[in-house]
Design brief:
2 domains; mainly alpha; two-stranded antiparallel sheet; 54% helix; flat
């Protein structure tokens, strides 16, 4: 947080506010129960495979939980990636393939976080 405060050139009041927010957020995070892992039911996998269009199932944090063959072909094979890289926002913003995939990448990036 200190590095963020320096980078933003915060004064003492702003710095105190930032650190207060961080402490409250950390305390709240410690109180919360961990979220259960999200799973896709077999019937949804069958429904995805029946679609004739690229399709993906996104989780609560834009994690790719499942994709049909066309979705894997159009975007990327998320199942072949390490778990931490199976995230649509991460793909759009950090993967060079996404920059090539979208004709208007800036528009795609601007709307990616809305999903």
């Amino acid at each position: 947080m200190e590095a963020v405060a320096r980078a933003l050139q915060l004064d003492d009041t702003e710095r105190a506010h930032l650190f207060g927010l961080a402490q409250r957020t950390a305390a709240r995070a410690r109180r919360k129960r961990p979220l259960s892992p999200q799973r896709v039911r077999p019937v949804l996998y069958r429904a995805l495979d029946a679609l004739a269009v690229p399709a993906m199932v996104l989780g609560r944090r834009m994690d790719i939980l499942a994709a049909n063959r066309l979705g894997s072909a159009v975007f990327t094979d998320f199942q072949a990636r390490p778990h931490r890289e199976r995230n649509f926002a991460r793909f759009v913003f950090l993967d060079e393939a996404a920059h090539k995939l979208y004709a208007d990448w800036e528009k795609a990036a601007a709307t990616a976080w809305l999903h």
